Amino acid sequence: MNNPFFKNIEKKTGVNMDDVLKLANSLQSANFQDEKTIRGVIQQVSQLANKKVPKELEDKIVKSIIKDGKSMDFNTISEMINKKK
Predict the structure, then answer these.
(1) Which residue would you say has higher pLDDT here, 76 or 21?
(2) Which of the listed ranges 12-16, 53-57, 80-84 does the model predict with the highest average pLDDT?
(3) 4-36 residues labelled b (16+ CB within 10 A) or e (exposed)
(4) Distance between CA 38 and CA 58 in Å, rounded?
(5) How many Cα atoms are found within 13 Å in the side-chain-facing hemisphere of 55?
(6) How confident is the model at residue 67 (pLDDT cuts 50, 70, 90)?
(7) Which residues contact 57 (CB under 8 A, 6 or more apart)?
(8) What pTM did the predictor assign?
C-alpha cells in the first residue's frame, strides 16, 4: 500500500493497513450468527490493535452480536475492545 494517507496512519498507529483491509474484506461475507466466526474476528481485531481481550469480554461481545443484534464491523468491535469496564 503506497498511498501516503495510509502510510501516515500506519506510522501513527503501528497498524498495517493491508491487514486492516484484508479483515474488512473478510467481514463482508462472514456469518455473524456463527459464534466461531465472531470469536475469530474478535481475535483478529485484538491482534491488529495489539490488545489482549479477556475471555469474559470476548463472551460479552459475542453475546451482544448474536443475541442483542449489534451490527458487526471493525469499528464496533474495536470500540468494544477498547472500552474499560
Answers:
(1) 21
(2) 53-57
(3) eeeeebbeeeeeebeebeebeeebeeeebeeee
(4) 9
(5) 0
(6) confident
(7) 80, 81, 85
(8) 0.69
